[in-house]
Specification:
By secondary structure, the protein is an alpha+beta fold. It has one domain (25-109). 58% of the residues lie in helices and 13% in strands. The protein has helices spanning 2-65, 105-109; strands at residues 75-81, 90-93, 96-100. It has a 3-stranded antiparallel beta sheet with strand order 1-3-2, with no helix packed on it. A hairpin with a 2-residue loop joins strand 2 (90-93) and strand 3. The protein binds iron/sulfur cluster. Iron/sulfur cluster (SF4) binds at residues 62-63, 66, 68-69, 76, 78-79, 101, 107-108, 111, 113-114.
Length: 119
């Protein structure tokens, strides 16, 4: 009887740390999942940043080669708006708002009016 009690006690003692570690497994899994989600988000943002950088590079290339680009002012001589667009850097020239395409290469990247300079 005494031996049985000692044996039970030994088993209980040796099981305690296992139980403690087992209990923490769900929180460890949760932490791992959160790291994976954050990593996915970072990858996603990095992909978007790379795409935007490519758009800006392509736009810049189109801007400097477009015959409507005024290199002295940075304005597009073709594109104009009747109202000021808050998301664009514009300058009022003779009552219309002209876009500083040197500050917005993304506009040239998607512009349907692009026309190469004649050489
Ligand atoms: S590409 Fe379009 S927005 Fe850019 S300078 Fe030429 S006409 Fe203007």
């Amino acid at each position: 009887m005494l031996k049985e009690n000692i044996l039970q006690r030994i088993i209980q003692v040796s099981i305690k740390p296992v139980k403690r570690r087992t209990a923490s497994i769900p929180s460890i899994i949760k932490d791992i999942k959160s790291v994976i989600k954050r990593r996915d988000r970072e990858d996603y943002l990095a992909d978007i940043a790379a795409i935007l950088a490519n758009i800006m590079l392509m736009g810049k290339e189109k801007t400097i080669k477009c015959q409507y680009y005024d290199i002295t002012t940075g304005l597009c001589k073709l594109l104009k708006f009747d109202i000021q667009i808050p998301t664009l850097y514009t300058i009022n020239v003779d009552g219309v708002w002209r876009v500083r395409v040197d500050k917005h290469p993304e506009i040239c990247a998607t512009c349907p009016y692009w026309k190469g300079k004649s050489s």
